[in-house]
Amino acid sequence: MKRACVLAFLISFNVPLRAQTRAPLSPNDQRARDIFEQLININTTGSSGSTTVASNAMAKRLLDAGFPPGDVQVIGPADSKNHNLVARFRGTGTQKPILLLAHIDVVDPFTLLERDGFFYGRGTLDVKDGAAILVATLARLKQEGYRPNRDLILALTTGEEGGSDYNGVQWLLANHRDLIDAAYVINMDAGDPVILNGKRAFRSVQAAEKVYVTFKLEVHNPGGHSSLPTKDNAIYRLAAALGRLSAYDFPSQLNEITRASFAKWSPLQQGQIATDMAAVSRPTPDTAAIRRLSDASPLYNAQFRTTCVATQLAGGHAENALPQSASATVNCRMLPGTPQDDVQRTLVRVVADTAVAVSVVQPAVPSPAAALQGEAMDAIERVTKRLWNIPVIPVMETGATDGLYLRNAGIPVYGVSGVFVDINDIRAHGRDERIGVQDYYDGAEYIYQLVKAVSGSGGR
Ligand SMILES: [Zn+2]
Fold it and tell me: From the CA of 402, how far away is ligand 1's center (Å)?
């Protein structure tokens, strides 16, 4: 999971202290808390834990809330201890279903601890908060007798963090697509509302992800004894090729999402950065502003262009022999919609040496961007204004989430978490991972209202 990447977009401020709140919990908050605590305390690491245990526990929550057993399934490969939960809240079927997604595997286990206004524990931020909120939301809606105008599908999946034996989303798409097929997806694992300088500043919506592809650059040579060197040396040729690659920038190219990001980030910035962000968001972007922003931060740079970077190097076989081969791994993150072949051709051209073979190590899984016009973004705007009155900023993430497989399968994905994160306090995967207690309850309310808004009764 990489949900925090985009947050680093903004400049650092001091971490604010938070007051401890001790008000009695409403029944809805209490339920959200109980589910969260139960989920955090179940070990769901890929190696030592089991997402099946967590899936069964969450399934029981839904059954207790009144879901028919036939609509709640815990499924996965027969030989795996990491199964997924898929549940369906049946609606009137007026519109195509919506998929509500969160992964429940974590990097390693921890127990929920509430202290000084925070929930601590592995997965509190990534992303058992979102999973618990989805279960609490569906249980609440069921108990309220809510009737959505479309089916609401819940999928709590395994394997996002890589420790599991397989990826739950990929497996569901390949084996049970009918169970999770939807008009679009709301993914808890990306797109956070953001606290900046102690204040709730904006909510991001992850509408696109860059596309991952890895190439190998390789040079072969007859070699020989190092006492009789020749000018034609595999290591030198590879090094020269990498030198040319390091000097190269892919052309800048804004899309609907990055243009909207910069337009909305601009008022949150100051000075030249603010001016430049406004300038690059215009229909004909200012190329000098793109250059300045690209130079100012690798995060801005990655928004503008496909990037390729050398990440691994190998070569030679003995200290006294001329190298018979030398190779480098080059990892690229392509703008959505970029054909892999185009990037490969560009690498060949930039390397400019036919002795350097450029091959694909890990092919791309294309991941189209979601539309910014339409009911999903409208509902997000509406609920965000009603509850928080802060700007909604669409973002293209430079990393990747499970949303990638769904996008690739033709199902648009919106990363929309409900829980505020502090830009200066990102601890996902850390031992002290935490979220604000009140932020959790507010997030549960937000997602509850959002789910209603996209299924017929959000009101205007
Ligand atoms: Zn995650």
Answer: 9
Structural tokens at position 312: 């691994």
Q: What is the per-residue burial (b if ≥16 Cβ within 10 Å, else e) of 444-455?
A: bbbbbbbbbbbb
Place of tokens 């190298």: 323
Give me ligand 1 centre to Cα 435, in Å. 14
Q: How far is the CA of 108 from the centre of ligand 1 (A)?
A: 13
**CA 3–ligand 1 middle distance (angstroms):** 7
CA of 188 to the centre of ligand 1 (A): 8
In terms of C-beta density within 10 A (0-12 exposed, 13-18 middle, 19 or more buried), how is residue 13 classed? Answer: middle
Q: Distance, CA 105 to ligand 1 centroid (Å)?
A: 8
Asked whether the whole model's pTM tops 0.70, one would answer yes
Separation of 160 CA from ligand 1 center, angstroms? 7
Determine which helix (DSSP H) or strand (DSSP E) holds 209, and give its type and residue range: strand 199-209
* CA–CA separation, 454 and 449 (whole Å): 9
Q: Are 359 and 332 in contact (CB under 8 A)?
A: no
How far is ligand 1, taken at its centre, from the CA of residue 291, in Å? Answer: 32
Beta-strand runs (E) in 210-339: 211-220, 224-225, 307-315, 321-322, 325-334
State the Cα angle at 438 between 434 and 444, rounded to 5°: 95
Q: Ligand 1 mean position to 433 CA, how many Å?
A: 12
Distance 159 CA to ligand 1 centre (A): 10
Distance 386 CA to ligand 1 centre (A): 27
Going residue by residue through the chain, which has 460 residues, state the pLDDT in tens, using 9 for 90 and above. Answer: 444 434 444 433 333 444 445 678 999 999 999 999 999 999 998 778 999 999 999 999 999 999 999 999 999 999 999 999 999 999 999 999 999 999 999 987 678 899 999 999 888 889 999 999 999 999 999 999 999 999 999 999 999 987 788 999 999 999 999 999 999 999 999 999 999 888 999 999 999 999 999 999 999 999 999 999 999 999 999 999 999 999 999 999 999 999 999 999 999 999 999 999 999 999 998 999 999 999 999 999 999 999 999 999 999 999 999 999 999 999 999 999 999 999 999 999 999 999 999 999 999 999 999 999 999 999 999 999 999 999 999 999 988 889 999 999 999 999 999 999 987 776 666 667 889 999 999 999 999 999 999 999 654 4
- Ligand 1 centroid to Cα of residue 406, in Å, is 15
